[in-house]
Automatic annotation (TrEMBL):
Domain ABC transporter: 4-240
Matching Pfam families: ABC_tran
Organism (species): Anabaena subtropica FACHB-260
UniProt subcellular location: Cell membrane
UniProt protein name: ABC transporter ATP-binding protein
Membrane topology: Peripheral membrane protein
Amino acid sequence: MKGLSTKGLSLAYDGVSIIRDLNLVIPTGQISALVGANGCGKSTLLRGLARLLKPHGGIVYLDGTSIVNLSTKEVAQRLGILPQSPVAPEGLTVRDLVAQGRYPYQNWLQQWSAKDERIVKQALEITDLLELADRALDTLSGGQRQRAWIAMALAQDTDILLLDEPTTFLDLAHQIEVLDLLYDLNQHQGRTIVMVLHDLNQACRYADYLVAVKDGRIFTAGEPKQVMTEEMVQEVFSLECRVVTDPVVGTPMCVPIGRKGESKLQTKYSSN
């Protein structure tokens, strides 16, 4: 079976269980978003899917094979991951960073090739970084740097991309810039994308499939219209809200109530 899935997956740090007996099938060729409160296990799950964290129990399947039975090179040629807040050596250029995506294809018999050069150039073009290729990474804006890291993941030429909070520390304009890029990659290249997102409304707008995680387990999963309910937000985030329709794209939109909103609601209903 093509794609990424888990069966009875359990993950732990220093003997402390984080993910417990989790069964999940990532829809192939779609965008999936992992959502949940801080500390619920989203990033841990992503690391487990990427084989960066050894399972405490259960199995991660990559294209129907247990991922632990695949070599590091095989995994890197099928699955790319962008960790949270990646750090590059000082002075590294954009082109040099993106070229690192081709390392899984290099060995002492096969050195840098014309194909590698073509794929790196293509990744720079897709992310609109060709003109910045010779700039040092640390001279770029936050959105440009994030695009560069995504370009490196693209240069791996994998069908699956895993991204841990790709919009963290970016202003709103750069967040949309990165999410639009990922959406285009999915729509035009059919890449399977799994990303951890904090913003529920962005998750609903850009993802085809939502996985709501609570206390290391899947609370619910499905299309945004199925998953994004006031009850789910209350249970998973301990937050009262109203779910309305996004006026731009028609997806569910979470409107938190909070104390100020609560007082307005009380005023509204007491006047009726």
